[in-house]
Amino acid sequence: MSPAKQSPRSKKREILTKKAPGAPKRFKSSYILFFMHVQEDIKKKLPPGTHTVSDEVVSMYTIHYCSCCYLILSHFISSIFIKAPVVSKKASELWRNLPAEERSHWNKEAAKEKKRYIAEKELYTGPVSRILF
Q1: Which of 32, 49, 50, 29 is nearest to 91 (CA)?
Q2: What residues contact 22, with CB distance under 8 A and at least 6 apart?
Q3: Could you give the count of Cα atoms lying within 13 Å of 42 in the half-sphere of its Cβ?
Q4: Report field, pTM of the whole predicted structure over 0.70
Q5: How far is 94 from 86, CA to CA, in rounded Å?
Q6: What is the spatial distance between Cα 62 and Cα 70, in angstroms, rounded to a whole number?
Q7: How far apart are CA 31 and CA 116, in angstroms?
Q8: CA atoms within 13 A on the CB side of 24
C-alpha cells in the first residue's frame, strides 16, 4: 500500500499570520474606489423587493407586541439590511459600462492610493505581521 498523501491543511497546528495593527493599509484598486463611491446611491435606488429580510432576523431585533407593530418594525429593519450580492452586481454592471474617461479618473485615484501606500510602507518601522497559533 502506498502511504497516504498529506495535504497542507491536515497539519495539527497551522501557523497563521495577521497584519500588525499599526501597519499601513493596502491600497485600493480603481474598482474598489468606484464601488465605495456608488454603493450608497445604489442602495437608495434599489426596488423594495431587494430589501427583504427573513422573519428570523426581524425577530432578533423586535419584541412582538402586536401584529401591526411587527409589520412596521419588520419594514424598518428590512430597509436597513440590503442584500450585498444585489448591490455588488449592480456596481459591477455600472463599472463594465463606465466610459473610458470616467474609468481613467478612477485609475488615477487608484494610482494616488498606491503611491500613498508605498510612501507609508517605506516610513513604517514596526512589525510587519504577527504569528497566530
Answers
A1: 32
A2: 124, 126
A3: 21
A4: no
A5: 13
A6: 7
A7: 17
A8: 16
Contact of 78 with 52, CB cutoff 8 Å? yes
- Report how far apart the first and last C-alpha atoms of the chain are (Å, whole number): 34
Nearest-angstrom CA–CA distance, 51 and 89: 15
Q: Grid coordinates standing for 97?
A: 459600462
Q: pLDDT tens digits for 53-106?
A: 555 555 555 555 555 555 555 555 555 566 778 889 999 999 999 999 999 999
Domains of the chain: 25-44+84-133 (1.10.30.10), 47-81 (no CATH)
Whose grid coordinates read 484598486?
Answer: 29
